[in-house]
Amino acid sequence: MTSTAPQTSPSSTAGRRWIDWFVAILWFGAIIGATVQQGGIHNHNNFLIFRAASRHLIAGSDLYTLYPAEHADLYKYSPTFALLFAPFAFLPLLPAIFLWNALNAGALFIALGMVLHVAPPTSPARSSSSTCSARSRTRRATRSSPR
Predict the structure, then answer these.
(1) pTM strictly above 0.70
(2) What does the buried/exposed string (b/e) look like for 78-116 if buried means 16 or more CB atoms within 10 Å of the residue's CB?
(3) Could you give the CA distance from residue 83 to residue 79 in angstroms, rounded to a whole number?
(4) What proportions of the chain, in percent to the nearest 5, are helix, strand and coil?
(5) Does residue 73 contact residue 132 with C-beta atoms inside 8 Å?
(6) Considering 41, 77, 117, 145, which has the largest number of Cβ atoms within 10 A of its Cβ?
(7) Could you report the per-residue pLDDT of 13-63, keeping only the tens digit for each?
C-alpha cells in the first residue's frame, strides 16, 4: 500500500527552514526599526494619546478633553480601546512601543497567513490517480446515461 502523504526531500525542508528564519529575523528587525523610529527619532503622538487615554480612564478623568501637556491631539476612540491599551500605558515608553509594534506586526503576520494560505503540494502519484479515477467516473456516467 502506498502512502498518500506528500514526500519532501531533506534539501527542500532545509531550504524552507532557512527562509523561515530569514523572514523571522527580517520581521524582528522591522519591529526594532519601527520602535527606534517612533521612540527616539519620530514624534509618536498617537501612541502618547492612547497611553494617556488609558491612564485617564483608570483615574476616572475625561478621555475626550484636550491635554496639551501630554499630547497634541484629542482622543477619538471608545473607552474600550483605552481599557485594552492599559497594559501598554504603565510600561516604560520604549518597551511599551516595542510591544505595541510587536502586537501589530503579529496581527499582520497572522492575517497574511490566513489570506495567503498555500495548499501543500500533492505527490505526482496521488494527482495522477485522482485524475484517472475522475476519468473513469466520467466514462461510467456517459455510458449509463440514456440517449
Answers:
(1) no
(2) eeeebeebeebbeeeeeebbbebbbeeeeeeeeeeeeee
(3) 6
(4) 70, 0, 30
(5) no
(6) 77
(7) 777 788 888 888 888 888 888 878 776 666 678 889 999 999 999 999 999
36-74 b/e (C-beta count within 10 Å ≥ 16 → b) = eebbeeeebeebbbbbbbbbbbeeeeebeeebeeebeee
What residue has cell string 505526482?
124
Which region, left, alpha or beta, applies to residue 145 given φ > 0 means left and ψ of -120 to 50 means alpha? beta
- Residue 62 has which C-alpha cell? 475625561
Cell of 105: 506586526
The answer, yes or no, to whether residue 101 has pLDDT greater than 80, is yes
Q: What is the DSSP letter of 50?
A: H
Q: What is the DSSP letter of 37?
A: I
